[in-house]
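Colleagues,

Please find the record for the two-part complex below.
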Amino acid sequence: AQSVTQLDSHVSVSEGTPVLLRCNYSSSYSPSLFWYVQHPNKGLQLLLKYTSAATLVKGINGFEAEFKKSETSFHLTKPSAHMSDAAEYFCVVSDVNRDDKIIFGKGTRLHILP
Amino acid sequence: GAGVSQSPSNKVTEKGKDVELRCDPISGHTALYWYRQSLGQGLEFLIYFQGNSAPDKSGLPSDRFSAERTGGSVSTLTIQRTQQEDSAVYLCASSLVGGRSYNEQFFGPGTRLTVL
């Protein structure tokens, strides 16, 4: 069975400083991992995904995430935060198995300080 | 192409009334999910349909909630005898299971339900 844990419910960073949103997962098989972003009053949007190719995945808006099997982690990073990055971020795990469902983390709200 | 659509976009109802929420997934997507997102909360999984298999109802909060998916396409989420705590945004998502899509979910805009 899969599970996903987002270690921080809220993260605050100053504009221009690095962003780190942490995610740990457990999976019985080969996981697919995703990060979704939800801006205020907007729908959920896929930010990036890992699907057993390169372990460092680049997404939209300068975000990237690294799959570390030994640490069962898929942390999301960005070198320099922008005010527009303020949103809620969800880490998601799915096994590449026909009938497995997708599990969402509880979300991390990212606050950008001016 | 067309994305996932949901209707209505907003629904205001009185406590005790029944409501139906509709989801039209992306054509050809075999998996369909319903989630609930309460104010300031994360996504709460409700129910999952995959092809012709029996749905995974493990997330439905009470027997007042039910959902069906007709012909493997459109889905309806029904809430009977609504309560104020049912107020939330109800999100639908679909995905193409298997192949190269790796279960990426595509979300609809949601239905905002307010129970007075």
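The first strand of chain B starts at residue 5 and ends at 7.

Comments are welcome before we finalize the supplementary table.
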